[in-house]
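FIELD: query
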Amino acid sequence: MKKYLTTVLFACLLALGQPWAQSNADFQQGKQQFAQKKYETAIASFKKATEAEPNKEANYMWLARAYNQRMKQTSNFMKKGALARKMKNAYKKAVEVAPQSVDARYSLAMYYTNAPGIAGGSFAKAEEQATAIIKLDKGKGYELLGVIHQSKKDYAAAEKAYRKGLQFSDNQAKLYQRLGMLLQAQKQYVRAFQEFGHAIKADKNYLDAYYQYARTAVFAQMQMSKGIKYLRYYVSKASAKNTKVVAPTYAWWRMGQLYELQQDTVQAKQAYQKALQLNANNKQAKAALEKLKETE
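FIELD: result
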């Protein structure tokens, strides 16, 4: 059956002609170059893909991502600005060819939210995309609206949007996590603990909630034992290769801080040392360990 499907797919490619096949090759080549961090050549490949298949959303989404990564590589302010505008235009094109795409609209909205005004940033335009997403996916739309309000420091509106999103979202843990971070930023630590706890209850594998609960414990100087317990669970599960979560070295540093708050300098020292074993360049852990040794 697999061989038959492969034969049929190959026949379809031939029937569609060389432009599609070439576009597919350009797109795949661009993804490979992107993975190799060759962003300049990836941009060229994705641009060729958009020329061959101008109505394919993925071509523009990956082109925008490549512009974003290339922008991070350069220190030239003018070049950053030019790349930012190109990234915005690629996201706009993705929305144009796929107006029902939540991902495309979400990405464009995040650009408008995070970019400075000189580079086309606009909270009003971001909110327009959020409103459009609410019609497609209420959970994602209200979450995005909360992010936009939080960026504007309109915390009451952000909390209202996140709680509205909880009524519709299929990722409850993420929304509770966002609420926890919102409250943590306002130094409402007791309420933040509650929201991080809700996130863990909704998804016991949502690792960032464990870390942020412990981070809040450091700020609040409360719930130290539970914070340590959560960090030990975190370091047993988190991987340094997973860039989507805080690196374990920083979890050990936070654990050292909590042990210090408990006046357990022996355990604190061991935690800082473990942090430095994982990353000798962890400046926070290094400074904390040196300061601890001065008091011995």
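FIELD: remark
The chain is about 80% helix and 0% strand.
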